[in-house]
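We both want to read discrete structure tokens more fluently, so let's practise on a single case. Would you write everything just below, so we can both look at the same thing?
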Amino acid sequence: MRVKKLELENFRNYERETFSFTEGLNVLTGKNAQGKTNCAEAVFYLCTGASLRIRHDRQLIRTGAEFARVRAETETRYGNVSLEARVFETRRELYLNGNRVARAVDFLGNMRSVFFSPGELRLIQDGPDERRRFLNLSISQTSREYCTALLRYSRILEQRNRLLKERDASLILETLPVWDDQLAAYAARIVAKRREYLAELSPRAAEAHAFLTDGAETLSLAPDRTFHGGEEEIASRLKREFEESRERDLRLGFTTVGPHRDDIRILLDGADARGFSSQGQARTAALSMKLAEVEIFKLLSGEAPVLILDDVMSELDLSRRKKLLSRIAGVQCILTCTHAERVLYGAECNKIRIRAGKIVGAERP
């Protein structure tokens, strides 16, 4: 799985530019604030339909322009695929092989990507929202069923929360059980899929972490709540939880239990990484999770995703830089850095130099 060509039009600081990528290591180099990360972000956006840096798609549009367009020609085990997104002030349009896609869920997963940057420290150090977002983006790339359940759960949750703010108590008591039945069904699918995914991710993250740290630390991942049985049993338990929390939910005006509140426990040498890890430990733990994500995608789809490493090398010591380069051999990687010579150690790569949103030089292997 690889991106062969990427076209940007009015995207971030790019007016119009075309990138050609090779199978292995592709290095975007240049000074800070020239557009390296913007290019990497465009690839991730086409793979996931989301950006890790913004909340509103309109922020992708170049200042003064009316729209942004991103298009990629890709190659997968099933053949060539073209992906295109057109972003306007109040909407976006998605195209798969030239045909407009009505549902975002049908666009997702045609290309898969794993993104890592220094900002991924949030995955370890911030609140549960970051870890849920990681799970949701990762699982959705390999499971449309999960993505669909997540979308429907979110819609029902929004309606339930709106109902909880009603002043008509009889309306609430009459309607809430109906929403709880539906909510529990979709919640069970989400919980079961996350449980399955974490069971695969945890040993791979532990192995990657041991590799990067020479066995000096152990990393383990687990859901913060344990659910047993199949979807029906999980749905029954969640329905009881929704019922038991009604009084509190009514008082607070929102739903206080469910997979939208769940978390991942991340432990380093048995201690909570969120409270006890240093910056360096947290960075390595997050990187290990991302490398494990690459392995999961290989397992589930039969081919490696596109790996995006944004300004990562400057944050790693010499030993871990070399280990990382050896680890990603055979995976198409888009890596951004300011000084390629200092981080690549002679590795063969497709080097693209960027200045002010333009390609000013390219060296292919």
About this structure: The first strand starts at residue 2 and ends at 11.
